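Field: sequence (string)
Field: structure_tokens (string)

Example rows 1 and 2, in order.
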Amino acid sequence: MQRLWQTDEGKIALLKYCEAEFSVENAKAYDDLCKYKDTKDPEEKLKMANHIYNLYIGNASSLLLVNASQSCKASVTEKMLKLPNDSASVLETLFDDFEVEVKSNLQDTFGRFMYSEAYAKYKRKRSSFDRAKKV
């Protein structure tokens, strides 16, 4: 799944599959979590933390609410309440448990994706692209 996610074509193929399967929230949350982890600027990281929390965890009416355990959501909520006072220490581990659950959800979807026509189409397209690069 990691290798697939690192290519634009792979990411798009999996996102489209997730949309068709009505589980796009997991792919979008994973993408945002990857960006969050790569962000070094503390102010930007704090903005992203609020965005991720409000979109995927804290707003029960959000259309992109991720299916995560209550204990996971409670843990993130508790850490969010410490922001911005303890930003440096909290921001580094804020979404660790949430990321585990998102990856688990996405891995389930990816397992089905690998046996789908969408994945076969992606592989054919990728093979054609790789062969063209060698020429």
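Row 2 begins here:
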Amino acid sequence: MPTLFAKIIFTFTALFSQNIDRDWDQGRYDTQLLSFQVNTFSSGYSIPWGMAFLPSGELLVSDISGSLWRVSKNGRKKRKIGNSLSVYYKGQGGLLDVQVHPDFELNKLIYMCYSDIKHKNRSHTTVARAVLNDHQLENFQIIYQVPEQLFTKISRHFGSRIVFDDAGYLYFSIGDRGMRDQAQDITLPNGKIHRIHDDGSIPKDNPFYHQKGAARTIWTYGNRNPQGLAIHPITGTIWEAEHGPRGGDELNIIYKGHNYGWPVITHGINYIGTKITNFTYKEGMDQPVWHWTPSIAVCGIQFYDGEAFQPWQNNLLAASLKFERLHRVVIENGEKVDEEIIFDAGSRVRDVEVGPMGLIYVALEDPGRIVQLSPLRKTPDLNRRN
């Protein structure tokens, strides 16, 4: 009898485990405007930090551990790209965002930002590009790197996201690297959004290009730790999401030469509960379009511009690490007018991307995986998740 009981338990456990392995994210979700189905698309990552679609419909995934992956259109196969980077994989550091050049079909270029490493484990955010030839990186080239004396042993606030605007300029973010006052210092790269050409050269119309001693790549400053950048599909404006301290996560529109205030003004406080500043407003410093207080630990953002989720056209999708969910933010005339939590993931939500067919892809942690959101007709379902 004990042997039979043990066999029954073993069989049940095996079947249950197989079901989890198959797709434990699977479920239906009803929202204000539509319903959708969630399925696991690709798995087996440490932390999938960034995603970018190739013109072929394949997906590039950057894993914080330093691996770069090429995932098939249906998600059933993934292959590690050789010549992956040597990164400072510690704390918040590692291989961060990945982006595809707007003219990829002609030049095959992809871009990566990562925590680079120098001797004695000193690190800083670096941006590189390479030609993607099948599953190999060729002609690897660092296009942005700070002077070695700015590398430190601090393993937090690297940023970093990459985005191309409609004119082909490349923007990327660097956090304050844990040295908050440097965000206000335009001679230093930390706590800034930067703008360069696709080859790393610096546009002469950058706001501080001609200012003596300034870091000429700076586009904006006073940004604490930006891990979200997205282009509005109608206006072409650049939107940025950045981590606040305890409270005060920000959503900003990025304007040339503007100061976003950190740490002189903030809606947050120190993690131990003490004040950072007495000010939430100061002349000459931009207010956020919106701030999340308490913090949601906002990370990747993306505007929805597909057809599959038509009612969400031009809405902003925002990832929340802390509360493990995906937000839909309604923007009108540059202002937030509504917000809805559309997906409770049960795992930290690191990034969000819209695929070529208009489906939504969400990068999750612990375990590292990517799920796919597909629209459904809004009909009653006893197994739905709200």
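free_text_note (row 2): The chain is about 5% helix and 40% strand.
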